[in-house]
Amino acid sequence: MTTMSDPKQGSFRLSMLLNDTRYRSYTFQFIALILLIALMAFLGINLVRNLASAGLNISYEFLNVPAGYDVQQTLIDYNSQSSNLRAAMVGIINTLLVAFLACVTATILGVIAGVARLSKNWLVSKLMAVYVEIFRNIPVLIWILMIYTLMTAVLPAPNAFRGDNATSSMLFDAFAFTNRGVYIPAPVWGPGSMVVVATFVLSIIAAILYRRYAVKLLFDTGKLLPMGWPTLAILVVPTLLLFFVMGRPVGLDYPALRGFNFQGGIQIGAPLIALWLALSVYTGAFIAENVRAGIQAISKGQTEAASSLGLRPKRVMNLVVLPQALRVIIPPLISQYLNITKNSSLAIAVGYADITATLGGITLNQTGRAIECVLLLMLFYLTISLSISAIMNVYNNNFSLKER
After folding, report:
1. For 160, which of 13, 156, 175, 225 could close a Cys bridge (C-beta 3.0–4.6 Å)?
2. What pLDDT was estimated at residue 307?
3. Residue 227: inside a domain, yes or no?
4. Please, which pLDDT band fits residue 397 given cuts at 50, 70 and 90?
5. CATH no. for residue 156?
6. How far is the C-alpha of 236 from the C-alpha of 227, rounded, in Å?
7. What are the tens digits of pLDDT across the range 183-208?
8. Is residue 229 part of a domain?
C-alpha cells in the first residue's frame, strides 16, 4: 500500500503541489513569497503615487549638493563645502569607529566581570554583581548623558594648562584631559615606518600561532609550555629591533597649548569618549551575564578533572572552561554587538557626528528629503547588522559541536 508521501514512478501532476508532502511546503512558501512581493509592490506604488500628487519625487541628487555645515571630529578630509554624500561618509566612519571601540571594550569588561562574579572571593563577587545590576537596569542614554556631563563639568578647560598660573598639568607631558576631550600624541610616520608596522602585525600573528601551538601540544602530549613571557617577547622584540635598525622611523607629535586650545597630537572629543564609555559599561554588564551563564553551563566534572591533572585554576579557566563555554556565550554575544551598533545612534544626544546626526539629522532637515535619508539610514544599519551577524556566525561555527 502506498501513500501520498511515498515516492512514485511516473509523470508529475499539478495536484501533487498540494496533495504530496514532498512539494506542499514549497508550494506554501512560494505563495507566501508572491503575496509578500505583491504587498511591497502595492505599498511602493502607493507611495510614489502619493508623492507625485503632492508634487514630490524620490531623488538622491541632494547627495551631490554641498553640505554647508562643519563636523567637529572627522577621520577623513571634510569641510562645509563638501557634498552631503561626503558628510554621510564621515558619519558612517564615526559610527563604525565608536561601534568597534565599544565592542572591544565591552567584551573585555564583560569577560572580566563575568569570570570575577564567579570568584570565590566574596567581595569581588559582590562588587561585580553590583556593577551588573546597576548598569544593565539603567537606560544607556542616561549613562551617556551622565558621563558627558561629568567630563564637561569636572575636567578643566584648556586654558587651565597655560603658563605659570596653570591649575592643571599634562600627564607625562604628553596627555591632556580637558572638558573638550583628551589630547594624546599622534604618530609621525617617517621613511621605513611601514616596515616596522608590518613587523608588528606579523608579530601579532606569530604570537597567536605560538599560543595555538602551545595549547595543541598540551592537549596532545601534556607538555606545558610557558605562555606569558614568550608571547610578550614575540610581540615586542622583533618590532623594537627593527625600530632601532631602521633609525626610529616612527615619531610622536605631542599636543601643545597654542592660543585657546591644544594643537598637534590627536584629539578624542568628549562626545566620543562619553558614548564609547557608556556603551562599553552598559553592554559589558549584559556580556558579563552571558559569560557567567556560559561558564556555569559547563559541568563541574570538567573543572575537577582538569584540576586532578595538576592544572592551576587560571589554566583550567583558560584551557578547559572558557573554550567550552564559548558555545554558549557567542550566540547572545552577537546580539550584544548588534545592540551596540544600533545604540550608537544615541550619539546625537551629546553632539557626536554619527550617521544619524549627519544624514538623518542635519542633512535631512536642510534638504527636506526625509524619505530618502531614512531609507539610506535603514539600508546602512541593515547592512552593518547583517555583516556583524555573518562574521560572528562564521566564528561561532568554529566552536560548535561537530559530529564525527
Report:
1. 156
2. 77
3. no
4. confident
5. 1.10.3720.10
6. 14
7. 888 888 888 888 888 889 999 999 88
8. no
